[in-house]
Amino acid sequence: MSPASTGATDTDDVRAAAAGDRHAFQRLYRLHVGRVHGAVYRLAGYDHARAEYLSQDAFIRAWQKLPGFRHESAFGTWLYRLAVNVALMDIRARGADPVSMLDDDHLPDTGETPFCAAERKELEHAISLLPPRARAVLVLHDIEGWRHEEIGNELGMAVGTSKAQLHRARGLLRKVLGERS
């Protein structure tokens, strides 16, 4: 199926789902669950159970809010932003301070054999050790490709704070992975 026909199908399914068609929503779910789950999984610190819960919560909210979707952006973009908001609300609800970081003294010991950044699982583990808000900035900027202005708006922080958190998160990652600064 070509991208143009996928977009038309997506739009048709969005309109049908907004009118209550559960089968259309199931098709939208199957089409978008991978991207939603991937973003939420990274924001949840690579916690599979938490990511599953947050992904399902995002799709439930999407179903509830779908009749109000104004088609000003692509459905996938709207759904992705909704899912990221769900994950960020979860971070806030867990009491993460927008500017706090782990002290260097409180980082886990990397042992004699440091993590190798080339190993995906080890990198995911290292990212999961970051404080939630620092992890959010790192994931949104370096993995999801957001600009600092977008991150600042979404997390309620100044652009400079977002940049500082990203710098700090990268430094903490280097320390956890055993790299020399």
Proportion of residues in β-strands: under 5%
Span between termini:
48 Å
Radius of gyration: 18 Å
Number of strands: 0
Helix-strand topology string: HHHHHHHH
Highlighted features:
mainly alpha; 8 helices; elongated; disordered N terminus
Structure description:
With 181 residues, the protein is mainly alpha-helical. It has eight helices and no strands. Helix 2 crosses helix 3, helix 2 crosses helix 4 and helix 6 packs across helix 8. The longest helix has 22 residues. The radius of gyration is 18 Å and the shape is elongated. The N terminus is likely disordered.
Secondary structure blueprint with pairings:
Blueprint: H1 3-18, H2 22-43, H3 48-65, H4 75-93, H5 120-128, H6 132-143, H7 148-155, H8 159-177
Helix pairs in contact: 1-2, 2-3, 2-4, 3-4, 6-8, 7-8
Give the gist of this structure.
The chain has 181 residues and is mainly α. 68% of the residues lie in helices and 0% in strands.
